[in-house]
């Protein structure tokens, strides 16, 4: 299931995490180590264009399949307790197979939102400085790392 805390922030604090810029551009979000893609889909359904990154091609394909099926018939757990939709048009999803620490998968895109729920804790502590540098490289100047 997607993160209930992230859903609460998205729906309760749109002043912080609005899916659109002031000029109407849809914001881009990244979920590194996206796993099955629960948070990727939930962010898409809340209006973001979302990139899910998974190191394994098998894992990426599982996330792609979940995204396809969930987009057709979104489950209520993607939204707050009071609704069955976010009230905005869904964004787009791209599930990418790639290594977070390598630059091949990133097409000079900087992200307005990076959501890291499990990725940092899954890497070895000696890699945390490298993680921080990569996050700084990927995050737009006015972006949010959650």
From TrEMBL:
GO molecular function: thiopurine S-methyltransferase activity
InterPro entries attached to this UniProt entry: SAM-dependent_MTases_sf, TPMT
Alphabetic keyword roster: Methyltransferase, S-adenosyl-L-methionine, Transferase
A GO biological-process term: methylation
Transferase found in the keyword field: yes
This protein's name: S-adenosyl-L-methionine-dependent methyltransferase
Species the sequence originates in: Petromyces alliaceus (Aspergillus alliaceus)
Lineage summary: Eukaryota, Fungi, Dikarya, Ascomycota, Pezizomycotina
């Amino acid at each position: 299931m997607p993160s209930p805390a992230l859903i609460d922030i998205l729906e309760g604090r749109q002043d912080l995490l609005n899916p659109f810029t002031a000029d109407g551009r849809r914001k881009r979000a990244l979920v590194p180590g996206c796993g099955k893609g629960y948070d990727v889909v939930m962010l898409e359904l809340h209006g973001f264009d979302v990139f899910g990154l998974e190191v394994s091609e098998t894992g990426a394909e599982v996330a792609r399949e979940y995204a396809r099926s969930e987009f057709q018939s979104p489950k209520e757990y993607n939204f707050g307790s009071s609704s069955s939709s976010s009230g905005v048009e869904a964004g787009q999803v791209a599930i990418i197979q790639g290594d977070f620490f390598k630059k091949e998968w990133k097409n000079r895109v900087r992200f307005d939102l990076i959501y890291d729920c499990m990725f940092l804790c899954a890497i070895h502590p000696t890699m945390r400085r490298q993680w921080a540098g990569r996050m700084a490289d990927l995050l737009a100047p006015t972006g949010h790392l959650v």
